[in-house]
TrEMBL record:
Domain of life: Eukaryota
Keywords, comma-separated and alphabetical: Ion transport, Membrane, Potassium, Potassium transport, Transmembrane, Transmembrane helix, Transport
Pfam families named among the record's database cross-references: CHX17_2nd, CHX17_C, Na_H_Exchanger
Cation/H+ exchanger transmembrane domain location: 76-464
UniProt source species: Camelina sativa (False flax)
Gene: LOC104759117
Occurrences of domain Cation/H(+) antiporter central (ranges): 521-645
Domain Cation/H(+) antiporter C-terminal: 657-807
Gene3D superfamilies noted in UniProt: 1.20.1530.20
Subcellular location: Membrane
Regions that span the bilayer: 60-83, 158-178, 198-215, 227-250, 262-282, 294-310, 349-368, 380-401, 413-433, 445-467
Family: Belongs to the monovalent cation:proton antiporter 2 (CPA2) transporter (TC 2.A.37) family. CHX (TC 2.A.37.4) subfamily.
Protein name: Cation/H(+) antiporter 5-like
């Protein structure tokens, strides 16, 4: 009986040709899986049955898969960490490739080494980690399609279209002239198919790879980044067209016609059946509710089915899930649900496996030999490098010319050409497919994988040092309220994160500023978190109108401020929506403030209270980080508005709106007074200037800052008699001497219920006795010590608070 059991196990599990759960079909062409699976050990019972013929720990698929996933994850994260420490902005994709390249030469180790048994087992059949990597490959292309906004193509200008077409077509023409008939006959080491494949892949600019690159370089939210994205999208469409033409030209007409019909039919089904079905799913999903899981699963099945369909057509199979992804309506609820559910897990855990295993195929000894032959201008690598260099140089030259003719600076044009010439995951995927399709030799793949690794390492670093996106936010002019003369044009950028901010911002404008005066210009910017899209959106509601049936990100904001604009017709109001990553929202605000030459940016505080002002209902840390980022480098003055009460609309109110400007001294306090001076133009505003003087400095006026403080206070008091409608606008000056922070707290607590709004500089009292012993109790440093004190739990919740910071980012020409 024991012998029969031993024979049975040998036949089903451990036979030479069914090793590790895989078998080969009789004709030797297909891989098939032997059942039952050899996934993990049976424990002590297996060893008792098999005795000396049991398997070692690494001969089970589950432990090997776990070991590979952990090893790859730790190794690529280590490379990414080391490169970050060296301050090299290398994309994560490159770190994943480096992990594979680092372990590629373990194949030269003795066969009994464990590491070789894990990564280079002694059979040639596919393994579970490879299969998981293939799963990630399909999922990656599908998600890239979901995040891509096809509508960008319609919005691109003629210059972008010309640049996108030139960057693909002209390098192909130049290379065809250089290599001539070699594209058909081949060279000494490369076949004609290899010539055409390398030439084409070096000429294209893949949108998915470039969008990931500029996102890693943190320039995708700049105007320059948007231009590059639009150009890459046009280039990608152009490259796809060239590929179809080449397919018809170099394939048998029967095969190419079958592929063409199959592809056209697939696209028609996607557009006419699948996309309407997805809109039907969206209509069935209640507002602000998630999409049902069953619909998500059906879409994922379609993604893998489309991959298999394109593979059966003998076309690049990634096109299938990519086209399906394009058909998914971007943004919430469907597109964002797919991205949120799969993106992080796929890109962080699964995709590294797909990028890791191809790099294991790098043949180190062969590379050393080929590098040695380069000095003799010979070898397969030399022949491939010749194509790469010719196409790269042609691509750089031809891509730089159109932007230059469009008045783009030379450096930016060159950087744009470098970005569009970068090679990454798309090209690596295609070369892997070419090896499987026998259009590329394995040795040629080694060369191309190495070139992609070098390109994705050097080009991002070069771009980082040539293009500094932060410089474009530097203002060479003083843009603050102190430089504005009374009655001159006042330009605001007013930011809205949530619907809860709308009422407070509108009421602040109505109650505090002279809206009857036509000198107020307000730019309202609704900030929406980017989810389910690969590229940010910036919508001007003056320039663009919503298409029928389209989803608006800013309905509530548009309705509220449209009503506001109809009532206050003298106010110039422009509405914008920015859909962007929260990490870069401050850049969108910078850009708008610079473009509109604004003097003041108004931000809502990140915390929202309940109607009775006793409970915090929202505490958004992401919005707080956005506010802090804006304060660091804003091109004009900034105010953070803490809305603490339901203000009554000014047109219905007959009592005056009481504002208290707290003044200790310093540039932020002077800016707060300048804002109070603008508010005085509103006839219903009653302004009180409360000057807090440390007891140790009472009666002293020394130093330039103190002289400026005194001059600003006098300017406010002088304007009290010259403001139009002065019989309604009233200014009171109060000076109080305080010993320490406790004195300051007691004084402010005593007057907390006497005012509707407190205006204070962010740096007010910092470093003086006015705030001594209060600094260490500050929770929100973006509000300053006194601003934080005014919104603390110890204070009555009647008055709102506006914290002002004067322009920080001013450069000399």
């Amino acid at each position: 009986m024991e012998e029969e059991m031993d024979t049975l196990y040998n036949a089903t599990y451990w036979a030479e040709f069914s090793y590790r759960g895989y078998g080969i079909s009789e004709d030797g062409t297909l891989f098939c899986e032997q059942l039952p699976h050899v996934v993990s050990s049976g424990g002590m019972w297996e060893m008792r049955l098999l005795q000396s013929k049991g398997l070692t720990f690494w001969e089970y698929s589950l432990p090997v898969t776990e070991a590979v996933i952990v090893s790859v994850l730790c190794l690529w994260q280590l490379f990414y960490f080391l490169l970050k420490k060296l301050r090299l902005p290398v994309p994560k994709f490159t770190s994943m490739m480096l992990a594979g390249a680092a372990l590629s030469q373990t194949s030269l180790l003795p066969d009994d080494w464990t590491i070789k048994q894990i990564f280079f087992p002694d059979d040639l059949r596919p393994k579970v980690p490879d299969t998981i990597g293939g799963f990630a490959f399909v999922l990656y292309w599908f998600l890239e399609g979901v995040k891509m906004d096809v509508g960008m193509v319609k919005k691109t200008g003629s210059k972008v279209v010309v640049t996108g077409m030139v960057t693909v077509l002209f390098p192909i023409f130049a290379a065809n002239m250089v290599f001539g008939k070699l594209r058909e006959t081949g060279g000494k080491y490369l076949t004609g198919v290899e010539y055409r494949t390398i030439l084409f892949m070096q000429s294209i600019s893949a949108f998915t790879g470039i969008s990931r690159l500029i996102r890693d370089l943190q320039i995708n939210h700049s105007e320059f980044g948007r231009i590059v994205l639009s150009t890459a999208m046009v280039a990608d469409v152009t490259g796809f067209g060239v590929n179809l033409v080449a397919l018809v030209a170099w394939s048998d007409w029967r095969v190419s016609s079958m592929q063409g019909v199959g592809l056209v039919g697939f696209v028609i089904v996607m557009i006419c059946v699948v996309r309407p079905a997805m809109f039907w799913v969206i209509r069935r999903t209640p507002e602000e509710r998630p999409v049902k899981e069953c619909f998500i699963y059906i879409i994922m099945i379609l993604a893998f089915g489309s991959f298999y369909y394109l593979k059966r057509l003998r076309m690049f199979p990634a096109v299938g899930p990519f086209i399906l992804g394009l058909c998914v309506p971007h943004g919430p609820p469907l597109g964002s649900a797919l991205v949120q559910k799969f993106e992080s897990f796929n890109s962080g855990i699964l995709l590294p496996l797909f990028l890791f295993f191809p790099m294991l195929q790098i043949d180190g000894p062969w590379l050393v030999d080929q590098i040695g032959q380069l000095r003799h201008y010979d070898g397969q690598m030399y022949e491939a490098l010749t194509i790469i260099v010719v196409v790269f140089v042609a691509k750089i030259i031809f891509t730089t010319i159109p932007p230059l003719l469009a008045k783009m600076p030379l450096t930016d044009s060159f950087v744009m050409a470098l970005i569009l010439s970068n090679k990454g995951i798309v090209e690596l995927c295609y070369f892997m497919y070419s090896v499987e399709a026998r259009a590329l030799q394995a040795k040629s793949f080694t060369t191309m994988a190495l070139m992609i690794l070098i390109s994705s390492t050097i080009l991002p670093v070069t771009v980082h040092y040539l293009y500094d996106s932060s410089k474009r936010f530097i203002s060479f002019q003083k843009r603050n309220l102190m430089t504005l003369k009374l009655g001159s044009e006042l330009r605001f950028v007013l930011c809205i994160h949530k619907a809860d901010h709308i009422a407070g911002m509108i009421n602040l404008l109505e109650k505090s500023f002279p809206l009857e005066d036509s000198s107020i210009i307000c730019y309202v910017l609704h900030l929406v978190e980017l989810v389910g899209l690969d590229n940010p959106l910036f919508i001007s509601h003056q320039m663009q109108t919503a298409e029928p049936g389209s989803r608006s990100y800013s309905n509530n904001v548009l309705i509220a401020f449209d009503s506001f604009k109809h009532y206050w017709k003298s106010v110039t109001l422009e509405l914008f929506t920015s859909v962007s990553n929260p990490k870069y929202m401050h850049q969108e605000i910078y850009s708008l403030a610079l473009d509109k030459q604004a003097s003041f940016i108004m931000l809502p505080f990140h915390r929202i209270w309940s109607l009775d002002q006793t409970t915090v209902v929202s505490d958004d840390v992401v919005r707080r980080n956005t506010n802090i980022n804006i304060l660091r480098q804003a091109p004009c003055s900034v105010g953070i508005f803490v809305h603490r009460q339901n203000l009554i609309s000014s047109q219905k109110s007959k009592h005056s709106f009481k504002v208290c400007a707290i003044f200790v001294g310093g540039k932020d306090d002077r800016e707060a007074l300048a804002l109070g001076r603008q508010m005085m133009r509103n006839q219903n505003v009653s302004l009180t200037v409360l000057k807090l003087v440390p007891e140790t400095m009472a009666g002293m006026t020394t130093g330039w800052d103190q002289m400026l403080d005194t001059a600003e206070v006098k300017e406010v008091l002088r304007n009290n008699n010259t403001t139009a409608g002065a019989q309604h606008s009233f200014v009171e000056f109060v000076e109080e001497t305080v010993k320490d922070g406790s004195d300051t707290s007691t004084l402010l607590l005593s007057i907390a219920n006497s005012f509707d709004l407190f205006v204070v500089g962010r740096s007010a009292g910092i470093g003086t006795d006015v705030t001594s012993a209060l600094t260490e109790w500050t929770d929100f440093h973006e509000l300053g010590v006194i601003g934080d004190l005014l919104i603390s739990e110890d204070f009555p919740r009647r008055a709102s608070v506006l914290v002002v910071q004067q322009q920080q980012n001013v450069a000399c020409r």
